[in-house]
Amino acid sequence: MDNEQESVNPYVIDAPVVEEARFFGREKVLTWAKEILGAKGTKRIVVLRGSYRIGKTSLLHQLRRHLPQRVFLIDLSQAGNEDKLGSLLWRIGTSIAAILDYDAAVRLSSPEVNDFLTNSDYFHETFLPRVYKALKRRRLVLAFDEVDSLEDGEGSLRGSFYTYLSTLMDSGLNLSLVLALEQWPESPPAILGDAYRWRLGHLDDVAATDLIIEPAKGVLEYDFHAVRRILDLTSGHPYFTQLLCHVVFERCALSGRVSAKDVEGAAEEAIELGLPYLERVWDESSPRARIVLAAFASLRGARGILLEQDLRFLLGRRGAGLSPSEISEGCQELVDGDVLEALGATSYRFRVELVKTWVSARRKLDSVLGMRRTKQVAATASDWMGRFLWPLIGLLVVTALTFWLLASWQPLREMNQASATPVETEAAPSLSYVLVTPTPDSRFTPTPIPTPRPPTLDIAYKLWDEQASNWEIYAMSRDGSLVTRLTDNDVDDSSPVWSSDHSWLTFVSERDGNQEIYRMDMDGSEPVNLTNNRAADWTPSISPDGTKVVFSSLRDGNWELYLMDADGSQPARMTFNQEPDYSPAWSPDGSKIAFVSERDGNLEIYVMNADGTAEVRLTRNSLLDLSPAWSPDGSSIAFESYRDGNMEIYVMNADGSEQRNLSNYPLADDHGPSWTVDGFGIVFYSNRDGNWDLHLMNAQGGEVSGLTNSPSLEQEPFWGS
């Protein structure tokens, strides 16, 4: 990997993606558009709807490569505020002429604005026939971007434009239309009645992962946790994914490696770069939607899910002055704007975690409510002054005159006749709490309680130290007690693995400047660097007899599996592929190693003999399968999979058969399975409670209980003997 010369940042953040090589995903909508628009003899209208910066313009550019017709992409945001329909059509004609001149070297005489202003039919009766003739009667598609930018309202340019499109489609010309909109009109014009519609959403994880990795391939190497963290922060939103990767590239291009910590460090800068987007979303939201947004950002929400009833309670307690219907309307507005995702009738979550981070830091609920109250008070005061001030002054004058008349007719009272008599009040009795101890019942004989098993450090895991801003290795007992810190450094320590006799661990550390495999005693003492290599080393697994360590390494330019003795000696390469192999896991009898490979185009689970022979693929699907973990009896392998649209814990037989979802929790992501020593349970980490915590479930699925519940992040559990 050559990083000596300065590389151009390949992530596009300030323009649409035009190059096909830098465009990822959207295969379904492109296929759909080709089917709708590509058939001969058809005149169709297609509407592509999507939120701001979701990739509508980039998609329109790709349509030019997928459709048999000649596609003209016209940006309507260039229309002036004073434009009428004639001048708008002249701008469209000028754009078409410029595109022909640039792309096809077909020259048309420059359109004259007066022709369009004086003849409302000039565009379709004279100009477009000239275009057809220049293109030898080739069919046309006019793709209009930024339709929402046209002035709206009664008698507006947008209304006139929609009306003209109906005339255009009835003109007999062989053309189709594509319209890119942010919002579907509340009162749709007639031209949209027969339109084919597609709403653009976020990229799926496969496309988003390609968008992260492919542009910087050969310059940056993202580890799995870095990719996963980018996906967590951006949810596949193409703009925010490019934005975050742009910052990561600027920070990491020299080193050539990206870790999850690098992604965390880049998040705040990415938010700053995205301020124009964030402030636009805020400014275009209604006052009620802003309050709802700020309130939701202040709520943690179990599993990241935000309930409307919690929102109503919070806003009622804060005196926001919003009715239940206004709160519901605010929620729906944010869903329509792709800011919130509706998970049910009254439950939501933020579509992009970076947006939530910005709102919670920059648009706090108290400030938003304070601005609303200030405006309400100012408006009320102005209204009160105008409506009541002069009548009130008149009333005060009349009242004062009345009192003066009454006082002049009554004799003055003697001032010294008035006296004050002090009144003694009785103090209220104070409250006291009495603890009542129940009397033992001599008839009851308690059942003897067995002596509990002494707690031991069963589970090793990594924890994010907020104060030091790095990952450290911790261990705890199987019931969540005896939390013990095992490492204490200024760099990341991760991926702990117990030896079978529970006397020592391997882990990954960056304390020597890059990722290395270390070992330490069970109490964290005597750390030793086992790999001592300039390249990154990762994902260790210890053989059942404790004599060998298998791990993944970049030392030969690609992630491959290597085997070394437990003291770090005699490292030897085990796999030989052009695509990455990593995350090995030794079977309990030591005869086989399960691992993850990208050799077939995506992440799948494989198994091979312990000597590296007889590689066999176990999973087969187009989405991600990761983190294999053997059951103690060797009959099953647990793993994590994205095949259901989120990360779930799966289990399969050791031969790959009978793959089934164990965790079955579509509202969160579950990762990193590790079996209990008796094989009856699986520990894993999940964000189902709104934060990354460790959980334990029955090995048959269900009966999930939380092991940690702290503000810290806990991940990568490994249950030892």
What can be said about this structure in brief?
This protein is 31% helix and 23% strand. It has 721 residues and is of the alpha+beta class. A hairpin with a 6-residue loop joins strand 24 (604-609) and strand 25 (616-617).
Question: What does this 3D model show about the protein?
Answer:
- With 721 residues, this protein is of the alpha+beta class.
- It has four domains: 26-199, P-loop containing nucleotide triphosphate hydrolases (Rossmann fold); 205-273; 277-369, Arc Repressor Mutant, subunit A, CATH 1.10.10; 459-719, Neuraminidase (6 Propeller), CATH 2.120.10.30.
- Helix content is 31%, strand content 23%.
- The strands form nine sheets. A five-stranded parallel sheet has the order 2-3-4-1-5. It has a four-stranded antiparallel sheet with strand order 13-12-11-34, with no helix packed on it. Strands 14-15-16-17 form a four-stranded antiparallel sheet, with no helix packed on it.
- α3 runs parallel beside α5.
Instruction: Report on the biggest sheet.
Output: 5 strands, parallel
**CATH topology annotation of the largest domain:** Neuraminidase
The gyration radius over C-alpha positions equals: 34 Å
Number of helices: 16
**Which structural class should the secondary elements be placed in?**
alpha+beta
| Unreliable parts | 1-5, 375-386, 408-451
Question: How much is the average pLDDT?
Answer: 85
Principal-axis shape equals globular
The CATH superfamily of the largest domain is TolB, C-terminal domain
Strand content: 15-25%
Which architecture of the largest domain per CATH?
A: 6 Propeller
The CATH class of the largest domain is identified as: Mainly Beta
Number of domains: 4
